[in-house]
Amino acid sequence: MSTSKNEKCKGKHFTWSKLMSHMLLEILVEEAFKGNKPSSTFKAGSFVKVAIEISQKFNVQCEPKHVDNHLKTVKKKNRE
User: Fold this and answer.
1) Which residues are 9's β-sheet partners?
2) Secondary structure (DSSP) of 1-69
3) Which residues contact 59 (CB under 8 A, 6 or more apart)?
4) Which domain holds residue 57?
5) How far is CA 59 from the centre of its chain?
6) 66 assigned to some structural domain
7) Within a domain: residue 6?
8) Structural domains of the chain, count
9) Would you place residue 11 in the very low, low, confident or very high pLDDT band (cuts 50, 70, 90)?
């Protein structure tokens, strides 16, 4: 039996919905405009902000490492 808090996070795996991915990208665009992407990567605080906002909006337990990993996945898919 899963609770709504763990609905998208089963074990070590965090499942991203399309809405979550879209929100991730929107927030990171805002962070880049604020100067939180000084080089080819974002500052750690940006990943924390995304994780908090996704956790609150979708009632899941999203962590900064989930955000970082998903961003890498999105980048990799766009290169193909």
Assistant:
1) 14
2) ---GGGTTEETTEEPPPHHHHHHHHHHHHHHHHTT--SSSS--HHHHHHHHHHHHHHHTS---HHHHHH
3) 4, 5, 7
4) 16-79
5) 14
6) yes
7) no
8) 1
9) low
Task: Write out pLDDT tens, residues 24-77.
Answer: 999 999 999 999 998 888 999 999 999 999 999 999 999 999 999 999 999 998
Amino acid in position 75: K
Long-range contacts of 43-50 (CB under 8 A, 24+ apart): 50/23, 50/24
Residue 5 lies in a domain: no
80's enclosing H/E stretch is none
Check if the beta carbon of residue 64 is closer than 8 Å to that of residue 48.
yes
Q: Go through the chain and tell me how many residues it has.
A: 80
Residue whose structure tokens are 């605080």: 45
